[in-house]
Design a protein that fits this description.
With 176 residues, the protein is of the alpha+beta class. It has one domain: Gcn5-related N-acetyltransferase (GNAT) (Aminopeptidase), CATH 3.40.630. Strands 1-2-3-4 form a four-stranded antiparallel sheet, with helices on both faces. The longest helix has 15 residues. 31% of the residues are buried.
Length: 176
Amino acid sequence: MEYTIWEMRPAEYPLLEDFLYEAIFQRDAANRLPREIINGPALQQYIRNFGKQTGDYCLCAEVNQTVVGAVWVRIIPGYGSVDSQTPEFAVSLVPEYRGRGIGTDLMRRMLLHLKDAGYAQASLAVQKDNYALRMYLAVGFQIAAENKEEYIMVHHLEPCPALDRKRDDIQEKSCL
């Protein structure tokens, strides 16, 4: 599948509302959580005033002139926060584009960006039964802590052999 990845432009930031909703792990596809759930403060911190804080950065993927995925980072006290210097990941794809490698590519490119920007690590939270856990492990995140339902995962960016192994492939297709 052909797709392009680029840095999301400020005019596209409103799309993060849709991607935030799609980032929520829905165990029961027939009984999805109401979209209004993203209006609560715990989730709004992932997108409200995006682009205005130091450390806000977003990449998106496009197929046939339609944005189908996004990965963004913020330094916030979110579900996967580990400290006040570590960017926390959010990644989301339109459901019909999941499982095609786009999310993995978005993650790897964001990790390269963070490494190049001088960050020491990145973090995220994932439900223990979320299928995305395999992707996070594959790109080099490690379980740092856990609670009853979630893992808090960290990716140490220096050294980063998992990324360096893929750097040529990524830059070959990258628009960074």
